[in-house]
Automatic annotation (TrEMBL), chains A, B, C, D:
Cofactor: Mg(2+)
GO molecular function, one term: fructose-6-phosphate binding
Name the record gives this protein: Phosphofructokinase domain-containing protein
Positions of the Phosphofructokinase domain: 8-314
Annotated GO CC locations: 6-phosphofructokinase complex
Length: 364, 364, 364, 364
């Protein structure tokens, strides 16, 4: 089925905040408008389709948004069409609202949807393609862990922000001869901690893929002190875990659509190091700062190219697919293929090997 | 007693890390060397005088350090000459080591000391002037709360870092319709939260000087939602406290030279807001990032002028004094005068009034 | 005459671009709206009053503009009410259009104007107060050279941008053993070159207030090479001039409202140095980059306080005055007082003296 | 021949300044030292080999340099071993000094050289491999135009710097309704102008690969004005040229190793636009700022991986080769292969196509 039948498209952004979302929205909308299509903005991810909050997007709406963090459309973490979390009294109840979504999609006379989001959003998209909704997915995650693509926009900005924080903390650590443990995002994959750690010259990098041995981490701190470097910088992904242990859970929210919150690996490591050595240690949790801000030039370019390629798929009538970049080329894969898969850091990753070569410890 | 007798000076930096320390060291050292003096660098604050770790500083040592965060001399939080904390077995014991300090001072043939530090460091300096050590103090605090001076270097950089973080968090808050509570430094005075909050357009600013009413804070969040702004940004100084309550203590370290650690006001406020409203809330603790990094141009200039003015006091033989800037002019005050005083935000502070005028809530 | 009669005010921005303009607009508008006033935005400086282009400003218009460079109202360099430049055929003709301006002012039922601008804009404002227009001026210049105030918003951002460029050029100069001459803004006053030069540790600073001797500048470059530092960084204000010479005029635009364009001092100095020594030299002209960009936290705070103080003058009914900051306090002066005066760098300026003390040459 | 014979290596950096040089030096040196090799730093590119200025590099020398712009080894543009430019009287004479270079190489008991540089430096390297010097090349160019590799370190930082400048200029252009033409580096290839233009949303991008038609550029400016956007941003690579014309030569230095200096395309375009339309136009030349500064996180990672891969080639005994990255993988090519070839922007480049899709004009 060709693009000749496509006259009007909707755009939505789902899941957590990510720098470059607006750049994708702009690229899809401008490409589409230049190609003669009408563009509709859907508010707050799938929630806008559930609650029928849709508005036309014009030139003015997508002008001057290239440098803005966040998403002009709004987003939502809890609105999966096949499992929509609603608070009823003191607990959450889950509904399948796909009928509603499809009805609003047709009511608005949409011929296709461009869905920008992460793993959860793409699973949601996949359940809609089964109902005949024509969808093109654009991958989004600051964690860079979406399966099927080598790179996602937003990651470079998150790495830049985390690197900047690590650079700043470096001076305090050095002046005070301290061990500083900095917790970065990354539940399932360590890309962010690996890249920011490598970029800032962290002495130790802890990632979910490589369980760490606290003895070895402590020994590295001591060794550094013994050669006259009183400080050690440790970059830790939030999903990093000790050998034989489990990821550190900050707290569990009873009866919630998102019950488990990781967090606390930095405090865990800093406390143990302080006990095992006589070194002054501190934990820092960088948190949401990593998700926000003006995208880097790299991410603005990448996001624009992702958005443009989504439009090319639209024109080619290739629906039910996710835009990806692999081996330096843009391509696409089936939405079904990416569901529930995480791209983790492989042992032969060049960045990992380069980090080891310059002397970085992974605690293993 | 004139500067004609001054041939050789020592420099030390005490207390927490602060952007611009190296700029002061460079300005003092270059001014002094251009004036024909010898300059000795003292390692790790008073600890270097206690342990006799002193080294000559030359042109090469102070070249290219203007942009560096931290201090090339190192610092120490625990080494007050009249109350030096030493770990003995499982507890801390305090010693008066002023004799030792004075002995090392004379041994090194120092004619004067330039001491760069905060309140604690200046108290230490004061106890040494009583023993005949000629000292000139340079005030240092990112909190801007040192009594006697209108402004201290490092504060502008800390405000810039905090503002940048608040700007980044803004996009996430807006995209997800969340209440974001960001905890900034400031135990006793709210300058950093006030300035960063004003600079970033925070909706609510909480500072130690103005106890906050949680009801009013929650109401502001609700009011914003009701006019279509689903998000609220709250900048909270770590020493902010509820009306009738106390500053929130994160934990108490038993038997420590620094027993009480504040922290947790952001989590306290975020949790309460979430309970009192149906708004999704998150806490972020910015932490040590605020202390580090390359100083802003403003702080490099200010630090250089502070350092230069310290040299002018040296030349004028005016010892036992602290360099200050008041009403736009450099001046000096007695070290004795500033001890144990904190400069808090007064109710008629122009920044505070401007914040109120543009609609910022202080929770009162 | 009290503020009780003020119901509706206009805001305009005149002259060159300056970071912080939107922060002033926001502060005036929000303060005024919170005070129950109506606010009208005037497009493109006085041009909007001449051509009657006025629009109400509401909460939405001034939301989210605190971090934006430029001015949401637009500006214009050529529209002085008493001397409005209009192109007629191949030449410029000047008109007195004050009657028109006053008519549009009354037509829009404005009770007062807040005029944000530099020297030219304030001269224009002064000629309107004579006709009964109630004006409060807010000073604006990245050059920091407006008479009557110690500081103007925008300058800190310009200094930060120039310092960042000088920092970047430093590494190239050092790697290639070159003399780099960087031309910064500042026709009549050297504040920008002085502050950015001091903040970046420039080896030589050339400013309009201190005519430079090329021999001395060249000698400094040679001396540095001879002690093993093959490179020299020179920060030059565009109005800097050789001893006995004149400011370097890039070109003269015949028959123009702005006939003389300075520029070229960097190339002049770099070429002469290369002739006088065997050192490789390069000129860089930073240009308009200095005027743009997101204001620093410092400038956002300062601009907000300036805007708020303008509102306080409005409330107090003190018209025909310019908001100033002197010796750390907000105050105001007569518009008439500031006309045609420039605040230059005095010989006893602390920044100048600090620069000399650390060894910076001013070519004198 | 295996790496078992390699005991001692030299490192040199040649050609223009580039962010990330120190990150490569650090990665090569740390990898080599961790692998048991000795490392010698060669001063000022080939000049150090000609003049026998070599020094051992230790852990301390390569510590804390990851974030530094420039090169700690120094560089030189004029020292090609087979064509070494020497000033004799009033002219330049060229010498083949390869014998001298090879002698010093053997004298220092070097077993291999890591040569970091651009096209000219690699040509020089190639002429030395013919004499038995074992060389591994690491490609360096902010222009990203080295043949054989998809990406070079330094380019991302240059794009970030240029994008930041374009962002800043945007606000001035918009406030004053001006055409702003910004000249960026790129003599033979338009990667920098293309990427920075795309990242900043420039309205027009001019690159050497696509001759521009001034009529079309002017028309775009007029069209924008007619839909209410009074300003236009034009990003121009310095080698961009009009249809049927030639690259604009700023000046020719008679009898020089580097006789032709491009430059002036921005002024050329701005002047013509002002003549052809009634729009106020300005030219800005960004210049050397693009070469300097702290490398971005991306470039620090890339440079570290390039340096590490150079060490892997050393270990594998694969000499006479250049490290490259192609299709997302590290690999190597013969030095001979890359000589005198430039990688230009192809018509089907995804970034170029994305720029066209969002409406950017290339003046064609």
């Amino acid at each position: 089925m060709g693009a000749e039948t496509i006259k009007r498209i909707g755009i939505l952004t789902g899941g957590g905040d990510c720098p470059g979302l607006n750049a994708v929205i702009r690229a899809v909308a401008k490409s589409a408008m230049n190609g003669g299509l009408e563009v509709i903005g859907i508010a707050d991810g799938y929630l806008g389709l559930i609650e029928n909050r849709l508005q036309p997007l014009g030139w003015r709406d997508v002008s001057n948004i290239l440098t803005l963090g966040g998403t002009i459309l709004g987003s939502c973490n809890k609105a999966n069409p096949s499992r929509y979390a609603v608070r009823e009294g003191d607990r959450w109840v889950y509904h399948d609202v796909r009928d509603q979504v499809v009805e609003h999609y047709h009511q608005a006379k949409l011929d296709a949807l461009v869905v920008i989001g992460g793993d959860g959003t793409m699973s949601g998209a996949h359940t809609l393609t089964d109902r005949g909704v024509k969808i093109i997915g654009v991958p989004k995650t600051i964690d860079n862990d979406l399966w099927g693509t080598d790179v996602t926009f937003g990651h470079d900005t998150a790495v830049a922000t985390a690197t900047d924080a690590l650079d700043k903390i470096h001076t305090t650590a050095a002046s005070h001869h301290r061990v500083m443990v900095v917790e970065l995002m990354g539940r399932y994959a360590g890309w962010l901690a690996l890249h920011a750690g490598l970029a800032s010259g962290a002495d130790v990098i802890l990632i979910p893929e490589i369980p760490f041995d606290l003895e070895k981490v402590a020994r590295r701190c001591i060794e550094r002190r013994d050669v006259g470097k009183g400080f050690t910088i440790i970059a830790a992904g939030e999903g990093a875990m000790p050998v034989g242990g489990e990821a550190i859970v900050d707290h569990v929210v009873e009866d919630s659509p998102d019950p488990i919150r990781l967090g606390g690996v930095a405090k865990y490591v800093a406390d143990r190091i302080e006990q095992m050595t006589d070194l002054d240690s501190r934990a820092i949790v960088l948190g949401h700062v990593q998700r926000g801000g003006t995208p880097t030039a790299f991410d603005r370019i990448l996001a624009t190219m992702f958005g443009h390629h989504a439009f090319e798929l639209l024109e080619a009538g290739q629906f039910g697919r996710l835009v990806v970049q692999r081996e330096g080329r843009f391509d696409s894969v089936e939405l079904a293929e990416v569901a529930d898969k995480v791209r983790t850091v492989p042992p032969d990753c060049p960045a990992l090997q380069a980090a080891r070569a310059v002397g970085t410890s992974f605690g293993d």
